[in-house]
Amino acid sequence: RRRIHPSPTPGSAGETRSSVKKKPPQFVPPNVRRERHNSKERERRRRIRLCCDELNMLVPFCQADTDKVTTLQWAATYLRYVNKIYGDAIKEVCLLITCKVTYV
């Protein structure tokens, strides 16, 4: 939570932050809002598709035409196997790797 403490603002005669009027939000036409939303959703889906394609290449038993749900199921199965075999040692390696990688 953010608290607003009454404190004088520079250049004001005893006015507090809570007494200073804020600008009302600008009106954004519905079609512009809709297009922004659609654009963000397209980008989200593109990122999901790219990550699933990469996962598809990394997980054994997945083919190029494997659907996303099956890819995720195989990935979960494979990760459970890796965790069972390597345990906490693999977590340490993953932490080292992910600390050096930046995602865009």
Automatic annotation (TrEMBL):
Domain of life: Eukaryota
Region (Disordered): 1-44
PANTHER family: TRANSCRIPTION FACTOR LIKE 5, TRANSCRIPTION FACTOR-LIKE 5 PROTEIN
Protein name in the entry: BHLH domain-containing protein
GO biological process, one term: spermatogenesis
Pfam families: HLH
SMART domains linked to this entry: HLH
Domain BHLH intervals: 32-82
GO cellular component: nucleus
Coiled coil: none
